[in-house]
Amino acid sequence: MKMKIFTMPEEMQAWATAQKAAGRTIGLCPTMGALHEGHMTLMRAAKEASDIVIASVFVNPTQFAPGEDYEKYPRQFREDCEKLAREGVDAVFHPEPAAMYPAGFGTYVTPDCAETQVLEGARRPIHFRGVATVVTKLMNITRADRAFFGQKDAQQVAVVRRCVEDLNLPVQVTMVPICREESGLARSSRNAYLRPAERKAATVLSRSLRKAETAFTAGERSAERLVALVQEELAGEPLARVDYVALRTFPGLQPVTEVRETCLLALAVFIGTTRLIDNVILEGEA
Amino acid sequence: MKMKIFTMPEEMQAWATAQKAAGRTIGLCPTMGALHEGHMTLMRAAKEASDIVIASVFVNPTQFAPGEDYEKYPRQFREDCEKLAREGVDAVFHPEPAAMYPAGFGTYVTPDCAETQVLEGARRPIHFRGVATVVTKLMNITRADRAFFGQKDAQQVAVVRRCVEDLNLPVQVTMVPICREESGLARSSRNAYLRPAERKAATVLSRSLRKAETAFTAGERSAERLVALVQEELAGEPLARVDYVALRTFPGLQPVTEVRETCLLALAVFIGTTRLIDNVILEGEA
Q1: B176, B203, B222 — which closes off a domain?
Q2: How distant is the Cα of A59 from the closest Cα of chain B, in angstroms?
Q3: A158 interfaces chain B, CB cutoff of 8 Å
Q4: How wide is the angle at C-alpha B27 spanned by C-alphas B23 and B33, nearest 5°?
Q5: Is residue A61 part of a domain?
Q6: Is A252 in Cβ contact with B13 (below 8 Å)?
Q7: Which ipTM was obtained for this model?
Q8: pLDDT tens for each residue of B93-118
Q9: Comparing C-alpha atoms, which of A5, A186, A207 is closest to residue A89?
């Protein structure tokens, strides 16, 4: 089957509805394009679990604040389609902003909970409202049974899970592990902003997390000391400017002093002017 | 088939999902219970258009502000079920508030548009956020293909339509005409609050609207004069205290001076301590 490309929500939804009427299950992989190997792991997970895979490619304006990188976010739809076709994706949904947010649009999905108020939410106040709104729309448009998100945006996964649970969306959310380069750098479309020296410096993110993870495996349970280990390693990289390092329960994102349940150790770091995020999940014994 | 009763969202959703998997279409009639003949016209419209009819009976706390009538709103679930069974409704969804809004709940559907800011929205600031949230949840829980709402809450229909459109919910919204008593009084669960003299006085609502409608049919197009006709008639009833009388486009709810497109002439009036609403739709030639 040739890969379908839809730009109008109504047409995407009509096609998806026909697929469901034929008894097929639908897996959705929401992306902002500029696809890399990390996205491909989402597609493969979706393909394994669903009859039909729909990838969305949409740089969603409502999750960017003024001054963030909405305008310069990399867009390369043709290359994206080639990659998706090679993975056997069935359909791509690639709407214009005006088709997603037509004149008169005024309904937002507003998650107002621990999951949205800390970490990225504290830095980017409207970000998760935009994410929750567009993900709800995409799930409805594609009639998804399952949706696949990367662990790199772990907080996004927590917010989406909260939103799916709170609104009873009939969708199962799957988190796919972070995909890393050999250097340890988490794959991200924003890595394209990095100059060569910055790309090398950026490996400090995963290195610092690995250091804490090793200590955790060796028995360290103090949140303060685990965070300090990360900060220590980050301090050794002159090109890095720390935005935050935080350790919280996952997916509830509550503060902890001792890691006794599953936790997220997450960070945001500027390398030059590029803001990168990374994280590791520490699996606490209950 | 014996009418099913579900109280847990997960069980309602699983049953609805099985119905859909069997190729059946689902019609949803959301209600707050205390069912009257008006609700039955929704059930009949749903039955005509769908294979399966699900009625929800849920007095939704999030659409009541403190001081409104959440606590005293009439509840009579057993009688409601008898009425629904007689109409051939297939399933009733009757959750506890804690099942709809469990601990940790934090995601609201927030319509922020003309449809929510005027008329009822101006008087009841959180009302339509509560309505949009619960209706989205109910649509998802029941996997509805169609949902049926009464014209008496015409603004609610406009808000739900906006919400369905904005979030791409795969549901068709149908508005069912107002069901009136012989006296002209629009049927409402809140009519139960009226003492006999008040019930008689309450007929002034429909009488005043009919007066304006007659003038409209005879050619009157001035919004100001149509509203004045209603106010004049209401002023003749000593037990009536006007909250608002308004004429706006429908469903956009924009202000108008001349009725040239489809408009809503709506009012809210206190009869004693009971607040009643009523409306008429004026079909303008385009």
Answers
A1: B176
A2: 17
A3: no
A4: 145
A5: yes
A6: no
A7: 0.94
A8: 999 999 999 999 999 999 988 888 89
A9: A5
